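Sample intake sheet
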Amino acid sequence: MEKMELWDILKAVPESAKKTISGGRLKGFTDIKPQWRLEKMTETFGPIGLGWKYDIKERWLEDYGGEVSAHIVINLYIRIKETWSEAIVGIGGSMLLSKELKGLYHSDEAYKMALTDALSVALKQLGVGANVYMGIKGKSESKYEKREEQVEKSEAIDFDLLVKTEEHINAQNWTEKKKEAMLKNIKDREFAKKVLSGEIK
């Protein structure tokens, strides 16, 4: 097998397997439907367990000031002819317990989503969906493209400030329309501080 042969087989993603992220920090970016990755691996190597497989090597939880994320490490293997590859490592994570305006939200699918994430990380090392990750032949960028730059530019949400600002707004003798308009902007840290200080009324 030539060096780039497998990569070239796996890199293209049909439009039917793409989906545009409609909300949040990654709004407008392109994601790949997880089921397509499994279909592509089966098409290329055969059924899972016979032509390719993975083992869950480790899973754990991490606590960040009351929020909890679930993490998984997998080893992925592919078989070419009669030879199994060395382990291809994938690490994934997803929020298990997160703070929201209405309180704590618990996801009962956190480990499943972490596994999906870990699989995508391992599979893209083989070239699965590479065109999307590299921003090739698509109007939307991949959600992974420039992610580090995007995270560096964005400030982490201060949930204590968020809650205090929401409580302050709801306690004011304002019209519901004004309260609704104010609440839409409270994730902006500077706006929230100005509301609490009385600079914005």
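Comment: The CA atoms of residues 161 and 193 lie 8 Å apart. The helical segments are 5-10, 34-45, 110-124, 130-133, 147-153, 159-171, 176-183, 189-197.
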